[in-house]
Design brief:
The strands form 2 sheets. Strands 2-1-3 form a 3-stranded mixed beta sheet. The protein has a two-stranded antiparallel sheet with strand order 4-5. The longest helix has 23 residues. 56% of the residues lie in helices and 7% in strands. The chain is mainly alpha-helical.
Length: 279
Amino acid sequence: MAEPKVRIEGFEAAVDEALQDVDMAGGDDGEVVEAEDGANGDGADQEEVAQEGTDARTTFIDYLKSPIIELLVGLGEEQTLLTAHQALLVKSPFFADAVAKFSAEATVAQTRRIEFANEDLDAVGCFLQYLYTGEYFPKKIGDALESDAVQSASGDDGKQLLKHAKVYTLADKLGVIELKSLAHSKVHRVNSTARGELAYARFVYANTPHTDTTIRKPIASFWGQRSHVLRHEAEDNFRALCLEYPEFGFDVLSFVLDARERKGVEAEPKSGRKRARGM
């Protein structure tokens, strides 16, 4: 059955009038046509520019196609040769500068080696694992870390704390801020003892600048709140650490004094010249 035709009054007349207006505006020289062609041309040019400005997505295969860099870690009998792909290593400003120093005429077949004589092998391994996977062992699981069969869960000797502290300091040297933050977050997920905490504190104060309050301040806070531990479990070790690194003792003392001042534990003395009797 044929569809019924619907006629809208005045519609055809309006269309004819609009077409006449277009013809009058365009004139005989075809300016309207040129404007349309120009518009289409500009759009194509803009699309081409947009395509040129869009970088192709870097795939994991692209990383694996990049040249191999050798990392010589350690000294003497402990020296170990590791390898990694250049495209991943240069995410670190340190390695980007090192790679830039290679000869411009160097080919992929030629050896590209960077020496890491004074770095910890395990920390370098964690750094490389992070580059390839975005994490390093042991991984974070909620508020804890995955189990480590090699190291005890309690960290009595401080090895777990030291592991993350070494990754932290290495990441700082290499300029990988995300890894530095990750390592610091793992420190606070390790259950340790007084002995382990002191070993960790000794390493931190030996290998970080005094301006690095991110990692130093929590250590001072930890010991400033555990005077009973210092007195009964680690007094001798604590004293030795304070003598070896005076900044550590000062930071702990500053934390204690600041805490007491905030709480208003002590009243201000009436005179600075006399001590109260009986003291």
